[in-house]
Known about the structure:
454 residues, globular
Amino acid sequence: EGYYNTAFRMPTKAYRDFMDFQMQFVADKAAELVQIVHDAGKEAIMFLGDNWIGIEPYGPYFEKIGLDAVVGSVGSAATLRMISEIPHVKYTEGRFLPYFFPDTFHDGGNPVVEAQENWLCARRAILQKPVDRIGYGGYLSLAAKFPDFVDYVEYIAEEFRSIHEVASVEKSHRPLKVGYLNAWGSLRSWQTHMVAHALPYKQIDSYLGILEALAGYSVETVFLSFDDVIENGLPEDLDVLINAGDQFTAFSGGEIWTNSTLVSTIRSFVHNGGGFIGVGQPSFYPYQGRSFQLADVMGVDQELGFSLSTNKYFHTPLDSHFVTQGLSTYDFGESMKNVYALSENTEIIEYSNREIHLAANSYGKGRGMYLAGLPYTFENGHLFYRMLMYTASREDLSETYYATHSATEVVVYPKAKKVVLINNSPQDVVTTYYDGQQKAHEIELVAGELKWLE
Length: 454
């Protein structure tokens, strides 16, 4: 077809076969190199760079390589989870930003700003699944010229130790289980829509925000492939299923949505009480008069110009909705055009420019929602978590171990009998914190503060 096979392309059987061959070949050769290192009495550690052709840390052959550890650069909460969740190694390490290079460490530069931004992003994910070690890279002689930066790194190290002491031995309380559905499933866990695991592209910002939000939420996240669902169905304990991406990509799905088993399985899941969230062009494939093959679940579809003469009667937004409580602005990123409501039953939450960007729909005992895009911001993170609660029919979670300010989050460790309240913002904030008995407490947090509560 004239395209390179990137992770954005729907993989053909031939390409999957080639990947399997390549993964086996690379694993065999890498295992030989690791054995040489072990024979010398040393540990074998792999640096997770911008690509890892054939290695695939979440693939079926990674274990046989026998690595002792993996180190990777941390550019976000999502990249932290991508590293910390890697199986079959003794430990993982996150290499934080900024690197000690002259582009940041120069006269007039302030590396503390980037260090704080990087730490506050990564910390959300560390609270859910910590790496075992943290570090930096570059020229130490440059860093030594910035004593404020050295002091801040000391602060980070101490805070990391306090988190690791708890989070490394106990998983946080996670009242919801969320499935992220695409062509790759668990093979590309915590890598959805990533390009070189953190390069910025405007075409992916509207979807990367989902992964970034999930990386710090206290929810159990599993990555499911279309083949998983077709062959095995959905996990019995799943609360919400997400499908997000542009049309025909491996993340949205393309022609796979003509598979009746896939579509009926998801419809049955929602009809029986589950939740579904579609972002961008979810379940997109023009077929049988629909653009979104799960349009009936979400209550919306996308006009492609094939039905312009069919009136779109429903466009009045609600005055308020559970998911937008506390929200002052909307940011849909690149957004999506020409989405319309199917019936008067669709709950239109945001409508502008004569199109829908946020909507909800009841479907049997369950709920579906549509969102035009989700670049990561504090307010969008707040919005998406409330969408998870709403589609799971768990609105009660908004008053149980929950903080109302969009820059604040709550993480609970039941066995340790500890609760941590974090401020992800570089500004002081005041938030309302709901404890486990649904009692409200007004709490002040200084910029970037992490507060342990018993």
